[in-house]
Amino acid sequence: MTIAPRPPVTLVPVGWRRPHASTLPVTGAWRPSHPPADRQFMRMAVDRPFILEGGGQLRDLTIAFETWGELNAVGSNAVLVCHALTGDAHAAGRAGPGQLTAGWWDHLIGPGRALDTDRYFVVCANVLGGCQGSTGPASLRPDGTAPYGSAFPVVSVRDMVRTQARLADALGVGRWRTVVGGSMGGPQVLEWGVMFPDRVASLVPIATCVAATAQQIAYWSTGRRAIVLDPKWRGGDYYDAAPGDGPHAGLALARMISQITFRTDDVFTDRFGRDVVEPLAGAFEMWQRFEVERYLEHHGDKLARRFDANSYLLLSKAMDLHDLGRGRGGIDAALARITVPTVSVGVSSDMLYPAYQQRELCERLGRQGVDARFIEIESTHGHDGFLIDTDQMAAALTDVLDSLEAPDG
Amino acid sequence: MTIAPRPPVTLVPVGWRRPHASTLPVTGAWRPSHPPADRQFMRMAVDRPFILEGGGQLRDLTIAFETWGELNAVGSNAVLVCHALTGDAHAAGRAGPGQLTAGWWDHLIGPGRALDTDRYFVVCANVLGGCQGSTGPASLRPDGTAPYGSAFPVVSVRDMVRTQARLADALGVGRWRTVVGGSMGGPQVLEWGVMFPDRVASLVPIATCVAATAQQIAYWSTGRRAIVLDPKWRGGDYYDAAPGDGPHAGLALARMISQITFRTDDVFTDRFGRDVVEPLAGAFEMWQRFEVERYLEHHGDKLARRFDANSYLLLSKAMDLHDLGRGRGGIDAALARITVPTVSVGVSSDMLYPAYQQRELCERLGRQGVDARFIEIESTHGHDGFLIDTDQMAAALTDVLDSLEAPDG
Q1: Is A280 contained in some domain?
Q2: What is this model's ipTM?
Q3: Which of A97, A254, B16, B264 is the most exposed, fewest CB within 10 Å of its CB?
Q4: Do residue A152 and residue B11 have CB atoms under 8 angstroms apart?
Q5: Domain enclosing residue B147, as ranges
C-alpha cells in the first residue's frame, strides 16, 4: 500500500484571519466628526446631573433621533418607535455618509405605509448608552478629555425611557398615539406604559417579555464574556488604539452567538444545510468553514463596523436587568399601571423570546381589564421575524392604529 | 434635591476574575505521569501510520478504555458505550486520583443495572483526539519532544470508530451485542452500524442525527472561536505555559455557550429565574451576576480543569463533519448498510439535537426494512436528559437488550 502525500494539516485558524482588519475603525460608534446624516440632536439641560436608576449619573446628555412626517397642531399624531439592541434611530431611509445601514423598518414607515407619515409624526431615538449619536461609552466625557470607556455607568431601560420622555417634551408631544418596538424595543414600550401611563394612547410591544428570563440572561452574558475575552477590549478603554486594533473579534463573536438565537434551525437548514466554503476534497482542515459559519462571520464583522463593544455590553446588561416589577411590588403591580389598548406581538418560531412570553403578557394585562390582544406572526425566521415578515407586522400595526380614534387637529 | 453619594460604577469585570487561576493546570488533559485510575491502554501497532479520513496520519496511537463485567467464552456478551464530546472512558465508577469525575452513566452500568455487568462485558473507550488517556493534541509526539498541539490532524467520527474496532479485535470481541451512545456518542453508534454491520447485533443512538445540521455547526463553531479568541490559546501551542496560564477562559466560554444548548428555558427559569449572586441594592454594576451566570461559569471552570482546549476544537469539528452520507452516495445509501435492530432515542425538550432528528432517523431506517424504533424520553432537561433522566434511559436500554436473543456461552 502506497501512502499518497498529503498537504500538511494544522490548527492555525485560517478562516479567522481578517485580511482587512486594518481598515476597521477602533469602534463602529458614530462620532460628532462624522456626517450627521438624518440625525437630529437633543441636548439635555446641564444644570444638574441625570441620575440613573442604577445609581450612576451623567451630565451633558445628548439624544440623537430622527423624525418622519409632521406633528399636528395639537401634538396628537405622534408615534414613538423604539429600536432593538443593535438598532439605532434610523428606522427608515437610506444608508449614506454617516449612516452605514438603511432603515431597519423602512418597509413600515413612510407615506401610505403602516406607520403612514402622511398621517403620523414618527419618531425614533437612539437609546441612552447606544453608539449612534446618543450619549454612550464611546462619547466624550463632559470635560472633553477622553471617551467614557470603562467609566460609563450601567443604564437601565427605565433610564432610556426617561430620556425619551424628555425628548417628547422637547418635541411638544404630550401623548404618543402608540409606542411600538421589538426585542429591546419591547421593554421600552412596556416601561412607557408603566412609567408614563397618561402619555401613551396605545402600546405595541413585540417579541419581548415582562422580565428577562434566565435563558435570555445566559445568552447575553456569553456575548459579554466574548467581548471581555478579547484582549483588544482593554478593560473597556480601547478608544485610543490604532485603526483595526479594537475589540472587533470579541464583538463579532458576541454577535455570532446572538445571531444563532435570532434565527431558527429550519432557516439555517434551508439556507445553508451542510454547504462548505472551502471544499473538503483532499484533506480536512480545522478552519475550513461551513457556509453557516461564513454567514455568522459576515454578521459579526458587519456589526463590528457599525457598533461599539462597550455599548453592546451596556445594552445587553440593560436587557438582562429588564424587570417590570423591580421596585414596584412585582410584575402585576407594575402592569396595573397600564390602562391603554395593548397589542402584544410574538413570532411563532422565536427561540430567544418565545411566543408564550408575549401571550402571557397579554393574558396578565387582560386579567387586569386592559383591552389587550395577542398577535402571532407566523414565520420560520425566528426572533428577527418582526424585522423580516414586515407584511404581517404592518397588518398588526394598522390594526392597532385604526382601532384608535382619529387624531385630533 | 440632595444627591446621595454613590459607590463608583465601572466596567471592570469583577465576576470574571478567577481568584484561584494559578491553581489551574495548563490543560485539563490526563497525562501519563498522572495516576491511571481505572484506565487500561491499548497501544496500536507502529509498523505503519494510522491514516485518517481527513488525510492526516498518526503513529504510535494509544487508546485508553475501561471495562466492567467479564467477557464470556465466545465473546458474545460485549456492549460498547460511546461517550459524548467532553465525556471519557469513565462511564461508571467513582472519582479519585487521576480521574476527576465520577462515571457519567454510573446509574446505568453495574450489577443489576440496565447494562448489567453480571451479564454483560461493558467497554467504554476515550475517543481518538480526546484528552483522557487516548492520543490527542495534548499527547507527546512519537519522538517524545513535545505535545502535538497545533500539529494534531483533524479526526473524524469514522477515525474514532476504526480505533474502537481495533480495540474490539484486541479484546476478542467479534460482535457487540449493542453499541450505545448519546450526543457525540450517537454518530459513533451510527458509524459502527455503517462501517461494521457484521460486528454489531443492535444499535442505540441517542440524541443525535444522521448529519450535523447548520444550527449545530453554528453553535459549535462559536465555541471554537471563543477558544481561539483567548490569547492564551497561543495558536494551539500552549502546553509549556505556566500553571494557570492556559486557555481556560476561552474553553470555559465555549462550555458556557454549549451548556445553554444542553438545557432548556424551562429548567433555567425553574432553577435560577432572576436570582442574583451580588445584590442589586445600592447600585447596578456591569459585572454583577445573575445566578444563571454563576451556574454557567461553574460549568465552564469545571470543564477547564478536566479538559483540553485543543481537544475541544478537534472533537467539536468532528461533530460538525459528521455526515453518514459523505463519500457513500448519500445518507440513505449509508443507512442501507445498517441491518440490525435499532432504537433511536430522543429527548422531548432537546434544543440542540431536537427529537425530530431521531424520529427521522428511525423512519429512514424503517423504510429500508430495519427493525427500528423511536423512544422519546419525556424530560424538561433538554439535550442532557439522556444523562439525567436515567430511569427512562434504563428502560430503553433494557428494552433493546431483552429483545435480542440471550448471549451464547
Answers
A1: no
A2: 0.94
A3: A97
A4: yes
A5: 25-213+327-403
